[in-house]
Amino acid sequence: MDQTFSFSSAHSSQVLLGRGVSQRLPDVVAGLQPHGVVVVHDQGMARLAAEVAVTLQATATVPISGDPETKQLRAVGDLADQLHRAGATRAAVIVAVGGGTVTDLVGFVASIYLRGVPFVACPTTTLAMCDAALGGKNGVDHSGLKNRLGTIRQPDAIVMDTDWLASLPDELFCEGLVEVVKKAAVLDASRFAELEHLAPLLRARDADATERAIAAAVEMKMAVVLADEHEGDRRRALNAGHTIGHAVESLAAGRLRHGAAVAMGLVAECRAARVDPAVTARVEALLRALGAATEIPEDLRDATQLWERAKSDKKASRGDVPMFVPRALGAGEVVTLTLDALAEALA
């Protein structure tokens, strides 16, 4: 895949996806006419980052933790300090190498450092390739709540080399596939059926099936983002599974990964909205076929605590807690979550 998504006459995002596409990264960066390149990377991706840095003739490399706990305001200041010490100007290109935590954090800093510098995301996990690095939403957690502080600013390019997924543990590989299921469940019934067909191959991490799934995620998400870049009604579709999922993730305090929480949240939201049981069953069966757990752990099934976190989510407004659920496969709609409905879904 090589597509360019234009958001205005002044800004567009180029998306490259496939095996070996990282070889085109120097041309992508050169097209931004950089005066210096800074590679910010997950500490666990030091070898890959060093290769990227050499290829791009980077002026500096900055390692950061890829742990979810890193997405805090203090990390924003720390990274800005390191960019300053590296001599990064407004003409510098910031390249992020890592998973969703890294692309979120670095994208946020790139959007505010010197009021915005060019940014290229190089996601190295399925979660980042299928969701986090796409769409221009950048941010950090605050006050114990997910993505409470953030911006919407599209990366100049996203380079997704599927060869980078080879070292990813199975649990993390599954995370991104959850996001593809979420999108297809509320946006595209034919793609949902395709994922059901591909599930055994995806579970076995077949390269061609993986690329097809990621390409589907890119196309579905970017179609929504192009129609609604700044989080109006249309973009709510991308929040399926996240209202309860974020609450579960927050209550788990680091014990659950984002993709796992979204899988649990998607099923719980279907139950809370009383979605057709046949639809809920297909969603749950596909998630399980891909290796995702769908039941919220017993010690996290406290409706009152989850409700308090859901009410504090950034999507909530005027006292309402919205969810986007598949009323039918491929046909999502907004419904309002209530404490009673949440308690019923957890029973």
What can you see in these coordinates?
The protein is of the alpha/beta class and 347 residues long. The chain has helices at residues 25-30, 46-56, 73-85, 100-112, 126-132, 170-187, 189-203, 207-227, 242-252, 258-272, 277-289, 303-311, 339-346, and strands at 2-6, 12-18, 37-42, 60-64, 93-98, 119-123, 137-142, 145-152, 157-161, 321-328, 331-337. The strands form three sheets. It has a seven-stranded mixed sheet, sandwiched between helices. The protein has a two-stranded antiparallel sheet with strand order 7-8. Strands 10-11 form a two-stranded antiparallel ribbon. Helix 4 (100-112) packs across helix 5, helix 5 (126-132) runs parallel beside helix 6 (170-187) and helix 10 (258-272) runs antiparallel to helix 11 (277-289). The radius of gyration is 19 Å and the shape is globular. The chain starts with a strand and ends with a helix. The mean pLDDT is 92.
Compressed to H and E, one letter per element, the order equals: EEHEHEHEHEHEEEHHHHHHHEEH
Strand content: 15-25%
Number of H/I helices: 13
The major pleated sheet works out as: 7 strands, mixed
Separation of the first and last Cα atoms = 44 Å
Overall average pLDDT: 92
Q: Pick out the low-confidence regions.
A: none
Over all CA atoms, what is the radius of gyration? 19 Å
> Order of strands in the sheet with the most strands?
1-2-9-6-5-3-4
Helicity level, as a percent range?
40-55%
Shape: globular
Structural class: alpha/beta
